[in-house]
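Example 3.2
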Amino acid sequence: MEKQQISNENQYQRGMANSPTANRGNSFSNRVPLAETKSVVDAYILGIVFGCLGAHHFYLRRIGFGVLYFFTFGLFGVGYLIDLFRMPYLVAMTNKEIADPKLRNKANISDAYVLWFPCGILGFHHFYLKNPGLGVLYFLTLGVFGIGWLIDLFRIPSLVQEHNSRDPSELRLKSVGAACVFTISPLGLLGSHHFYLGNIGFAFAYFFTFGLLGVGWIVDWFRVCILVQRANNAIKNGPDNRKYIDDAYVLWFPFGLLGLHHFYLNRPIWGILYFFTFGLVGIGWLIDGFRIPCLVKDANRISTENGLIIVPPGQPIQQTGHPVAASQTGYPLAASQTGYGTNVMTPPPQVILSAQGYPMSGYYPIQYPYQQYATQYPPSGYMYAAMAVQYQPGAPPAYPIPPHTGESNGNHISTEFHGTNISTLPYNTDMSMEKPPPYSEKDAKSNLSP
């Protein structure tokens, strides 16, 4: 049995040594099974006879190219002729992809150039490089009226490099080259570059005004790199409502007479006023030419302020695991009978707290005429954030204040609030009490009597 296994291994090694890809310095030849390696001879036979129908591409597991050659008769014969010269390269690439399947997602320059001429005018090379948006645009506009197609002759190496270095898990950023093609082409008059960069507002403004009568279109030639940078920042960090001075000036001339810059700066009333008065008879429009930087600064300041999280007064928010109300300043409010709190800037006239947040020993729970708030003492060791009692000045206290006997365990609390002196009160720090003191509803009602 062992001899038969050794014999099979020797036959496999001899077969690999005689394979067309052996002894060419390719390390992958030692890892690819003989039955799966592709032969240059077989590829040439299929390419010469049926290459116009893509037979050699089907053999080399390039199904997409095979289908494309079948319906375009070998890219109108051009791709068929080029493949006769690059057949060994195609076979070597296929064998590498068999050894390392990760290489199948990589593009190569030769394929991109084969698709660029002549079918690149229909965007075939962009579809190959996973740029479907540009592919559809080239298909509908014949390579952006031939201009984009000619520019791609020089930028195909960078497009291939960008495709190969792209991580599928990363965000799809905008390309400066693609934005330049959209901007310089006549479609830029219709806002194609703004559609590409996600500036929908500017895109429709350009579409209905033919690039702001061509002025904005020409200005965009010189600031397209800045626009791409802003679009990529928005993709990375989320939408940004920041306004920019250059955008405001582009809208100010000449359509600022209709208030476009005011609409952009979130000043709709001024925009409507300029629209019906033709920029305040042109006077307001001229003045805005000097004060646009200030208007942009104010718009960004207001946008920043509105973007802050503001909790309405009295609305409970979650803080440290307990519901706490918040004031307009964002600070928590003091406790009150309603449970929603009062503003911390106006504390209650009289507050009695234990030093450690525990209820004072010897005090009964408080019962108000309209609602009873405490019927039981909390379990031993439970921490209160605060225990507050509020009453109106001049009204009788809702609880009995025991006289100060001077006898205590040495722990006292003394406080003064709004000129009201509170006598030093003894309290017991022994927290071992588990049962509340005797209490009845009759005692509570007697405490409320004047």
